[in-house]
Amino acid sequence: MTNSPRFSAHPVPKSEKKPVSDTRHGITRVDDYAWMRAENWQDVFRDPSTLEPEIRSHLEAENAYQSALMADTKPLQAKLFEEMKGRIKEDDSSVPSKDGPYAYGTSFKTGGQHPRFFRTPRDGGEQTMLLDGDLEAQDKAYFSLGSADHSPDHTKLIWGVDDKGSEYYTLKVRDLETMQDNAETVSDTSGSGVWNAQSDGFYYTRVDANHRPSRLFFHKLGTSESQDRLIHEEKDPGFFLGVGGSSLDDFIFIDIHDHETSEVWLIPANDASAEPKLVAERQPGVEYSLTEGGDVFYILTNADGAKDFKIMSVPVATPERANWKEVVAHKAGRLLLGHSAYKNHLVWLERENSLPRIVIRDRQTGEEHAIAFDEEAFSLGLSGSPEYDTEVIRFSYSSMTTPTQLYDYNMRTRERSLLKTQEVPSGHNPDDYVTRRLLAPAHDGETVPVSIVYHKNTKLDGSAPALLYGYGSYGHSIPASFNTNCLSLADRGFIYAIAHIRGGKDKGYDWYENGKRLNKLNTFKDFIAASEHLVAEGFTSHDRIIAQGGSAGGMLMGAIVNMAPQNFGGIIAEVPFVDVINTMLDDTLPLTPPEWTEWGNPITSATDYSYMASYSPYDNVTAQAYPPILAVAGLTDPRVTYWEPAKWVAKLRELKTDDNPVLFRINMDAGHAGASGRFSRLEEVAYTQAFALKLVGKVEA
């Protein structure tokens, strides 16, 4: 890759080298840029002004550099922003969901950045605004709402707020008669609470000094948080603790899990003094989750070798493992993704052959039927119902060309009612676009699904640019759903592609297992194979493929550009997890112990250390030519700390043998999710798209 004339010359930020050595398992590594990690990072998450001046100065220099190199795209960014904003119905509102005497929903106002929560009488009528996100966000550089949950008696609302981007949420309680918040607050939470049955208190998880939710408390209304009762504490730093409620408001579920093992405890929702009751003791590699079905629990689990999961039932009175009985059998290759139960029906979402469907079973007769669609690639979402005694559930459907459609579905009559179709105010004709599902041959005989969308007028002669997106970790699958933002690229001749690589669960649980830990290289090779298939099939050429991924997908970007830089014309790495070994060696960081099951533990295992060292993007930067690279990060990000991309960028500039630019843009007022507010986020998308368009010579607004 040679110097690109698309970027003008500007002084590159200088990164001082201060070598720090570390020896593990007989191997010594030298990190020249370890100084970029603030020793007081925990303080910085709470108060960004405490960042050391030397580090702040360096980050500000990086922002000045990227701003200068992207200055000529400002008109294009503005145009892209207006296009994407024009596809959003600014005063959009959800279809309210019925719960007791009311129906609850969310809405936005024209020009508003944040959601508003409202309710109406159950069968329609005047809206009552319960919480206005825009009002609460006034005069704040960053504002993120956690959940907003009404009490069982419908008189109060718990809501959470984070004003730093560091995901330390404060919970507040609002009186829905006066619409005023109580004086009492609860700090350092995960962002949500679960009401008890009496509506006079709630359960919540508190985040510890290392930003891990490890303790469950009960807060009694009218008392200070210092009096909150500790209900349960998880001592193992490798596990997260969460809390949820049942649809009948009978039980509080305490969920303890890492990425492959889970454990559930129960508390009666009407007795905050009760001691939690264990359902089944954790066993490595065994996952299970509960939903209430009257006098039984339905349990989704991979126990007994059910790799793609099965559903069991157990009496509520005796939920121990010995009493579990099979209800939906395991079927290899059919992955059960989630389940819910209602008075007369059991419902689950499954995926087979990379496509989802919803299955409904009559609990009395055992008769089953499915909701499915015929497009080549599509996405289904199952939202169910907040009520237990109902025959109507709600689901959503979309494809890469079809806007989201929201349906109510009668499980008894099998009638579906279209409630809402996503409105694209600036206009959208699905017939103007083509969506396809390709199968790319991988290095070991597997085939990698690739979902693509492009404008019908795009020439498929290899000249079209392509944006290839990937993730491939934690079993997370990227759905082939409608994305209004990618239309700006498609309208400019881009092919937008999603590589459903190993590490996700697109082709079942095996697809996940074969892309984690000691199989992680498959993830990167699959993505490279997807790029090669797009070229082989005549869709694009390698120098016109821009690869994009975020978080663990940012690690993917770092790995593939080390392994096959010649395959890509540019890289967009958002909040990229690129300093894998150093992060996994640092057990004080928020996510490190829980992540060992995903990546391996390089502290205790020489095998894990060596394998990780073979792909860790920061450790594998070499003296070779790299395409232009853009890294994006947030200063207060507790998931992927800012110093990972900062160090990676410095090392790339030090070692690469070409003159292509490496840009680093850091939001000094935000964390992992980027800017808060729906329009502020669009400005960031416009920036990354402008970078991609600049690389293929499409800078004109």
UniProtKB/TrEMBL annotation:
The Peptidase S9A N-terminal domain, residue ranges: 16-421
Enzyme Commission designation: 3.4.21.83
Domain Peptidase S9 prolyl oligopeptidase catalytic as annotated: residue spans: 481-697
Feature: compositional bias, Basic and acidic residues: 13-25
Protein name: Oligopeptidase B
Pfam families reported for this sequence: Peptidase_S9, Peptidase_S9_N
GO MF annotation, one: serine-type endopeptidase activity
UniProt-annotated stretches for the region Disordered: 1-25
